[in-house]
Every structure is written in structure tokens, then in C-alpha cells.
Design a protein that fits this description.
The structure holds two protein chains of two kinds. Chain A is an alpha+beta fold. Helix content of chain A is 18%, strand content 40%. In chain A, the strands form four sheets. In chain A, strands 4-3-6-1-7 form a five-stranded mixed beta sheet, with no helix packed on it. In chain A, strands 10, 11, 13, 14 and 16 form a five-stranded antiparallel beta sheet that branches. In chain A, strand 3 and strand 4 (74-82) form a beta hairpin. In chain A, 49% of the residues are buried. Chain B is mainly β. Helices cover 13% and strands 39% of the residues of chain B. Chain B has five helices and 19 strands. In chain B, the strands form five sheets. In chain B, strands 2, 4, 5, 6 and 8 form a five-stranded antiparallel beta sheet that branches. Chain B has a four-stranded antiparallel beta sheet with strand order 7-3-10-11. In chain B, strands 12-17-14-15 form a four-stranded antiparallel beta sheet, sandwiched between helices. Classes of the chains: A alpha+beta, B mainly beta. The interface between A and B is large, with 58 and 68 residues.
């Protein structure tokens, strides 16, 4: 490492350490897909997680919630107060009209801002030059019969850092990396699929493209493939045509199990969601 | 305490386990997508074999199968666990069972103890997002969750053994119950600790509704029913009238439990299945003394000055 690079790295570490110990560590918002169509509804489940670390603080946290439509257009933002150990259960069907949004699918991002009294405890954070505070949350998807599906968030809103001083935010948002080629570790039974949809999210601030598909478990057979190009913060739901699905057992009798794949992931952990249904079953929605 | 570079005298069956409960008494079958996740491009890639151990509801080992499948680097297979149980003699029908798949490097498949390079173990555990899938026929219900069950409850690999479970996933409506599956597993075959979790069911405003506890024997799991816990406290209807949603807050100070939530529609059989998130998902560097102090604060605030409940409120003991 050169002297210049070394010095720059030490200055950056020092800035992050000072920010964190003074109550301003970088905070990253997690994201989720939402859907209010296809007979499905979405509900945010978020808890005031600061309480479990600093239960002696009796002040509320503030959730900053931002909604993007399927094309990536910002629909609006709102805030909610979460009391100590409180939880937020927010129906997208209630929130979207309040934002004058007619979006039926898209992206939701949440950053939970700590109470000042919690921020005053951040001197306790280990490895202050590296720490990141994140707001993972769950999305409950459900249909009219109260069939529930839960998904925890895995990808952050790229290009946005909250809470930290401007220099730290700038340094952490200059680039948002791409992901790698990815194949799901979940195998689906090819001959029982009645519906299969792959939901791709671009959580980055740049337009990105990828190839999404369905492959045999050994990757030797491409069952279905499509190109996807997404604007910043946009979402695309790729449905494998049902007439295509129904031919798989005849066309590929040796392929009993298939898996979803994407090349590349649009962001480091930007794995798609998978909506599927086996014959006569209720819908299922999970990470790929 | 950083983990050692080599773990001496390690039972290789615990090198890369995949552990899950069977939900047979709830009427679900189990299929598992299990992989050899370190692909052929890695210097740590190696062929693996898979065998299976089955434990009863008290954590007693019913038996271990011979290796029955091989996985090349990068290979994935899907196993119908209910069918594979036939490989282990003496498995009772219908009762609660814990299953552990042992994904073991070929080179150690018939070795009782080896000195394991920690880097190899970590690489294979980190690449091992096995997908546990529950299904219910003839309804076509299918759900599942991907997770890793790496080194747990093993003093050779971790000096802290506590669990904080915060899950805003309690849903209790007329047809819906939320169950929390808590597994007590280890990477030591001689592990024998019963782990206790004290827990609260909280309302959306953080209000404390009901407190209870559950004790989980080693190599077993327990299902905590939110509906039953509220019902036995006489608070189910009131909780439902207030929306029927809230948070499960649990603390174990004598061991690690693996929590999985199961939100189940008793009418349709649909079941949502997901894990909770450990503290580092919220505060990326959390651990060590800070974690110990926080757990002590949580114990003082939530679990110290309240009378012990009459009995563990679980759906089975």
C-alpha cells in the first residue's frame, strides 16, 4: 500500500470512528419488494431494535419509509414513531393512497433513526471505524384467505447512507458494486409447477441489466431465460409463461428439479424473490 | 476469543451440518435442498458425502445412517426426508423428530476424529444456505426457509453462548397461529446442556402482555405457540381485539438456540417460515463485551423482577 493510499485509508477510518463514537455511525436502509396485485397484499413488520441493545432508554425511534414504484419513480416518504420495544405493522394498501400513489408493486426502503439518548450510547459500539447500523425488516405477504408468507430483507438501498457526516456518506456512496453470477440453492419440482415468477430488484442508484432464468440443478439445461433492464430502484416481475411451464416435463424429462438464477446480481446481495405455486396449492413467495 | 486455526479431535460429522425439525405432528412433510456449496474453482473444494442422524423429542439419538449420497463440488440435490428416514432403523412414526444431515468431506467419511482446519470449516459453512421446505399434500402447500447451522454451542469455537430473539412476527387471528421453533444443537456429539429461553409476547406499543419460558433439551427442538401462550394467560381475545400482532422477545443466557418462526393458517395449512436475525444484522460489529453488557441490561429490564410463570407454555413438553 502506498503512503498516499495508506494515509487516505487512515483518515477515512478516523472519520468513521469519530462519527460513530459521537453518535453518528453510518446507517443503511434495507429494502423489500411490495405487491398489491395478483390477489396479494404486503405488510411491513419492523421493531424498534435499538431497545434490545439499550433497554434502559425510554425514547422512541423514528422510521423513515420511502416508496418507489415498479419503474423506480419515488412515490413519496413518510415517518412513523416506534416506542421502546414497539413494532410497526404497516399495510402498503393503507400507506400508498396516503402518498397519492397508484403503484401496485415496487420497492420500500426503511431507515430507523435512533432516539438521541440511544445515539449517546454509541460509544459502546465495537470496532467503531467499521460499524454500520442497518434496519432489516420483514415483509408479510398474504392473500384473501390469510395465507401468510414471510421474507426478511437482505439487500440495502444502494447509494444512500444516513446519519453520518457528509464526508463519510460521500465516501460510502461513491460506487455501488455489482453482484456476481448467482444460482439459487433451492430446488423446485419441475413437473408440479403451476406458476413461477421471478422478481428482480435494482436497489442501486444506476440503471442495470442482467439475465434471469430457470436452470436444471446441474446448470446443464436452460429451461427459460429472459433479459432484464431496470432503471434505478425499479422492479420487474418476470413470469415464466404457463404454456412453457407445462411443456417442461415432456421437453426435459430428465430434469426433475430446477432452480432460479441471475447473471449477474444487480447488486452484491440483490437476489431475486420467487413467487411460485404448485398445482392446487396456495402461492409461495420467498427469496430465491 | 478468536476461533483457533485448527480444531483438534473434531468429529467430522459436525463439519458442515444441516439441521432442522420435522413438523410431522402438524401434518407437514419435509424436503431439503442440500448442497456442496464450495464450487470446483475454490482451493477448498472437495467431494462430500451425506449421512443422517435422527434425534427424538428428548434429544436422544435414535440412529445415524450410513453415507447415502455423494456431492461433487458445487453440486446440489433435493432430498425427501420422510422417505430417507427409512435409512435409520427404529424411527417412530408421527412424533416430533430433529434431523441432522452430516455433509462430510470424503476424506473424513470414515474417521471418528480429525484435526479440522478452521478455514475449511468456515468456508463450507458459509457456502451452505440449505433450503428447508415444508409441504402438505394433497393441498399443494409449500413453504421454506434457507439457513446455515454452523458451529453452535461449542466452547472450542465460541466463548459466548447466548441468544436474543426479537421477532415482530406474532400473528394470532382466528385461523392463524404463530409458532416459534427453537432448536438446541451443537457441533459436539457429547453436548448435554438444556437451554432455557425466557420470553415475552409484546404488543405493538411495546407493552408487556405475557411472559413465559421454555426449556429445550440438547439435540431437540420445542415449538412455542403464541396463541397457546396468550390463551393460557387468558389474554388471547384481548390481544386479538388489539390487532393480533406483536413481537416475540426471547433471551437465553445459558446457550444458543436457533429460532425459526412459523405462521400457520390452521384452515388452509399454509405456513410462513422464516428465521430471525442475529444482532450483527442490526449493528454490524456487535459482539464481545458490548454484547454481554447489553444482554445483562436486557435481563435486568425484562426478565429479573417478574415472578416466574407457573409452567412453560409450550404446545408439548
Amino acid at each position: 500500500m502506498s503512503f498516499v493510499t495508506d494515509t487516505r485509508a487512515r483518515l477515512a477510518d478516523g472519520a468513521r470512528r469519530r462519527a460513530a463514537t459521537s453518535g453518528r455511525p453510518p446507517r443503511l436502509a434495507y429494502t423489500h419488494y411490495f405487491i398489491e396485485t395478483e390477489g396479494l397484499h404486503s405488510r411491513i413488520h419492523l421493531q424498534n431494535f435499538y431497545s434490545t441493545f439499550w433497554p434502559q432508554v425510554h425514547e422512541p425511534a423514528t422510521a423513515h419509509i420511502t416508496i418507489f414504484g415498479a419503474e423506480g419513480r419515488r412515490q413519496g416518504a413518510t415517518t412513523r414513531s416506534l416506542p421502546p420495544f414497539g413494532s410497526l405493522f404497516l399495510e402498503l394498501s393503507d400507506l400508498l393512497p396516503k402518498l397519492d400513489s397508484t403503484a401496485t408493486e415496487g420497492l420500500v426502503a426503511i431507515d430507523l433513526e435512533p432516539a438521541p439518548a440511544v445515539a449517546a450510547q454509541f460509544h459502546e459500539l465495537p470496532d467503531a471505524d467499521r460499524v454500520e447500523v442497518k434496519t432489516p425488516f420483514w415483509m408479510a405477504y398474504y392473500d384473501g384467505d390469510e395465507n401468510f408468507m414471510y421474507v426478511h430483507s437482505i439487500d440495502v438501498l444502494g447509494g444512500e447512507v444516513f446519519g453520518a457526516p457528509a464526508l463519510v456518506r460521500w465516501a460510502m456512496t461513491r460506487t455501488v458494486g455489482h453482484g456476481e453470477r448467482w444460482r439459487s440453492w433451492r430446488l423446485l419440482e419441475a413437473d408440479r409447477l403451476a406458476d413461477l415468477q421471478i422478481v428482480c430488484l435494482n436497489t442501486s442508484p444506476d440503471a442495470r441489466r442482467s439475465t434471469v432464468g430457470v436452470y436444471s440443478s446441474d446448470d446443464a439445461v436452460t429451461m427459460y431465460e429472459a433479459e432484464v433492464e431496470l432503471a434505478p430502484r425499479a422492479v420487474a416481475r418476470v413470469r415464466v409463461p404457463s404454456d412453457e411451464l407445462s411443456t417442461w416435463p415432456q421437453r426435459h424429462p430428465e430434469t426433475r428439479h430446477v432452480r432460479v438464477g441471475m447473471d449477474p446480481l444487480m447488486t452484491a446481495n440483490g437476489k431475486p424473490y420467487v413467487m411460485m405455486r404448485y398445482t392446487d396449492g396456495p402461492p409461495s413467495l420467498h427469496h430465491g | 476469543m478468536p476461533p483457533p486455526s485448527t480444531i483438534p479431535d473434531f468429529d467430522p460429522r459436525f463439519f458442515r451440518p444441516c439441521t432442522f425439525p420435522l413438523l410431522r405432528e402438524l401434518g407437514y412433510g419435509t424436503r431439503v435442498s442440500v448442497n456442496n456449496g464450495v464450487g470446483p474453482g475454490s482451493p477448498l473444494a472437495m467431494p462430500m458425502t451425506v449421512s443422517m442422524s435422527v434425534y427424538d423429542n428428548h434429544g436422544g439419538l435414535i440412529g445415524t445412517s450410513e453415507p447415502f449420497i455423494s456431492l461433487a463440488p458445487g453440486e446440489i440435490v433435493k432430498l425427501d426426508i420422510d422417505a430417507e428416514l427409512e435409512r435409520v432403523p427404529g424411527v417412530p412414526g408421527g412424533s416430533a423428530l430433529l434431523v441432522m444431515l452430516h455433509v462430510v468431506p470424503d476424506k473424513w467419511a470414515h474417521t471418528p476424529q480429525v484435526d479440522i482446519p478452521a478455514a475449511e470449516m468456515i468456508a463450507h459453512v458459509q457456502a451452505s444456505d440449505d433450503f428447508i421446505e415444508y409441504h402438505q399434500r394433497p393441498k399443494g402447500v409449500v413453504t421454506g426457509v434457507a439457513y446455515q447451522t454452523g458451529p453452535l454451542n461449542d466452547a472450542r469455537l465460541s466463548s459466548t453462548r447466548t441468544t436474543v430473539c426479537q421477532a415482530p412476527k406474532v400473528i394470532v387471528t382466528e385461523p392463524v397461529d404463530t409458532l416459534f421453533s427453537l432448536m438446541n444443537i451443537s457441533t459436539r456429539s457429547d453436548y448435554s446442556d438444556i437451554v432455557r429461553m425466557d420470553y415475552w409476547i409484546l404488543g405493538p406499543g411495546g407493552e408487556r402482555i405475557v411472559r413465559s419460558f421454555v426449556e429445550v433439551p440438547p439435540f431437540s427442538f420445542r415449538l412455542v405457540s403464541a396463541t397457546k401462550t396468550l390463551e393460557e394467560a387468558g389474554l388471547l381475545e384481548e390481544y386479538r381485539e388489539r390487532g393480533g400482532v406483536g413481537m416475540f422477545l426471547g433471551l437465553s443466557v445459558n446457550g444458543t438456540l436457533v429460532p425459526i418462526s412459523l405462521t400457520r393458517n390452521r384452515s388452509t395449512g399454509a405456513i410462513a417460515c422464516d428465521h430471525t436475525l442475529p444482532p450483527v444484522f442490526y449493528l454490524s460489529t456487535w459482539g464481545g463485551d458490548a454484547r454481554r453488557r447489553a444482554n445483562e441490561r436486557l435481563a435486568r429490564e425484562f426478565f429479573a423482577d417478574v415472578a416466574q410463570p407457573r409452567s412453560p407454555e409450550v404446545i408439548r413438553s
